[in-house]
Amino acid sequence: MTATNFDLPTPIRSKPLIFAVLLVIGELGLIGTVFKHLISFNCRANWPAWACSGASGALVAVYCALGALVLMIMLRPGPFRSLLSEAGTRLWPLALNGAGVALAFAPVLILKDGAGSDGLLMTALAWGLGMLGLVSGLMLFLAPVSRWRGFVAETWTTLLPLLIAGAATPMLATLIRPLWRLETISNITFSAVVTVVEGLGYAVEIEPKRKIIGANDFYINVAPVCSGIEGIALVILFVTIYVTLFRENLRFPRVLWLYPIGILASALFNIVRISALLIIGLEESPELAVGGFHSHAGWLMFTLVSLGIIGLAETVPALQKTAVSAPVGAPSPSVPFLQDPVVARILPFAVFMLSALPASALVNTPGVVYPIRVMLMGGILALFCGLYRRFAWRLDPVAVAVGAAIGLMWVLIPVEPSDAAPYGALTGSLLIIWFVLRGLGTIVFVPVIEELFFRDYLETRFRLGTGLGWRIFAACATAALFAALHDRWAEAFVAGLAFSWVIARRGNVVDAIVAHGVANALVFAVAATTGNLAII
To answer: What are the residue boundaries of the structural domains of the chain, listed by start?
Structure first.
């Protein structure tokens, strides 16, 4: 089973396009890095808050708009074949691009701490004209004005909404941020935690107004972000995905009861999680409470709730149709378990995810036990080696280039080093073994596991129809879920879309695995060389 090919009769001129993508990623990444980290200028200490947020948001908006354009190329490649038929035949536009980059860097000469907002207008003008030159140069490098005019006339009804939606994404993310600070849920959670802990016999001090609870030297703040809204949102998303994928076997509207059941279960588990966190801290283990249990136990609770929802839906007759047939994509009873293609795509990912939960929740430094997870991943992949050998294992230069672009993007966007090394106190030969196994997992096992599950299985399942809309939905939904598993969700979302495009080119999942592996190899090499393992 491989992702559906889009049947491109004539391939897009890929080399100039890849060059342009790599160039714009490098240029925007360099501009962001210099102005945010390499000059002595504190924006908020000199400029109004709206100007600082606007400057930062504008660069992110450009990234998101370009991502939307890449999505359109991936899902509707037909118009781009004509547009890019002359790509790379003119080099003079690169001079315009370079002039735009130089102009964007010009404010480095005037931005100094203590200068106030004197240079604000000139900086905004330089950035605006610089971005115009940067983007225009690349556009003319890819196609002359006449072809752009025809392309826009043909696609503007799709292109314009996509670009607007992409550019507006940062602003929309800011606008919905207050939804994550629901005081009512926070108050209920705090009161419930106090009741549970006091009911278990612990004498604690409470400060209801600030939602602080604890005793001795260990106190926790049940802030709004700890109210459980994140878990509730994840459960709603999970139920929606489950109901969508297996709608043929579920009885509507009864199955919609899974929503309130999942929400209630998530809220209760969050209360249990915070109560357990407090009790662990009070029992003289504050490091474990904060370092291991605090955030990672939330994923454990979410997994339990998700498994419970599936179990409930599959075992309660009232939620199933009378004539229950095997779900589309479910393992066929006539196929041996270890020879089932669907199992080979789902089970390794399940082992990969579940192995992270106990390590994250019960170990102060979860990264120390990553080699154990690598051995589990290797073992489960080995069971399906016969199936994987049937794939078309060929090295595609385009996949390699896309992977290199994603890896470059990942390392160019700055990330603060972690306070604690993920390998803990390991030294000598144990540390060498840790790095070898960490690299093996990151470069080989993880790309295979994640691409087989996300792009080869899940994206195919999300395509509920054959139209463009379903392709867009499948690619975006898969990329969003892929991003949810990463702390650096924005970069992961872009990577997910890129991997979807790679697999769609030839209908070969190996291409996505190669691109993912190349990206991870580049990231791991930079991380190991610089010592900043937080970028992985």
So the answer is: 14-175, 183-319, 337-535
The strand pairing partners of 215, in sequence order, are 218
Per DSSP, what are the bridge partners of residue 221? 212
What is the C-alpha to C-alpha distance for residues 16 and 87, in angstroms, rounded to an integer? 6
Question: Which one, of 147, 179, 22, 174, lies nearest residue 81 by Cα?
Answer: 147
C-alpha distances (whole Å) from 426 to each of 290, 335, 397, 523 are 21, 45, 38, 22
Of residues 455, 461, 463, the one with CA closest to residue 508: 455
Q: What is the pLDDT of residue 75?
A: 56
Single out the residue of 352, 511, 483, 487 nearest to residue 5, CA to CA: 511
- Residue 213, phi then psi, degrees to nearest 5: -145, 145
Average pLDDT, the chain: 80
Q: Provide CB contacts within 8 A for 141, sequence distance 6+.
A: 16, 20, 87, 88, 90, 91, 93, 94, 97
pTM equals 0.55
Supply the DSSP symbol for 375.
H
Tokens of 461: 């399942």
DSSP 253: T
Cα–Cα dist 492/454, whole Å: 12
- 14-33 and 49-75 helices cross at what angle (nearest 10)? 170
Model pLDDT, residue 287: 60
Name the pLDDT band for 460 (thresholds 50, 70, 90). confident
Count of residues making up the chain: 536
pLDDT tens-digit profile of 159-200? 777 777 767 766 665 555 555 455 677 788 888 988 988 888
Report the C-alpha gap between 66 and 81 in whole angstroms.
18
Query: How many whole angstroms separate alpha carbon 405 and alpha carbon 59?
Result: 18
Crossing angle of helices 397-412 and 489-506, in 10° steps, is 170
Q: Directed axis angle between helix 93-105 and helix 120-142, to 10°? A: 160
- Residue 259 corresponds to which tokens in the numbers above? 């929503």
CA nearest neighbour of 245 among 404, 68, 481: 481
Phi, psi of 533 (to 5 degrees): -75, -5
**Which DSSP category does 221 fall into?**
E
For residues 135-169, one letter each, b for 16 or more C-beta atoms within 10 angstroms of the residue's C-beta and e for the rest, the string is bebbbbbbbeeebeeebeeebeeebeebbeebbeb
151: CB partners within 8 A, 6+ apart: 79, 80, 82, 83, 143
DSSP 117-166: TTTHHHHHHHHHHHHHHHHHHHHHHHS-HHHHHHHHHHHHHHHHHHHHHH
Calculate the CA 220 to chain-centre distance.
29
Inter-residue long-range contacts of 208-216, CB under 8 Å, 24+ positions, other chains counted: 211/186, 211/187, 213/278, 214/278, 214/281, 214/282, 215/282, 216/282
Q: How many CB atoms lie within 10 A of CB 42?
A: 12
Q: Token pair for residue 254?
A: 């009864």
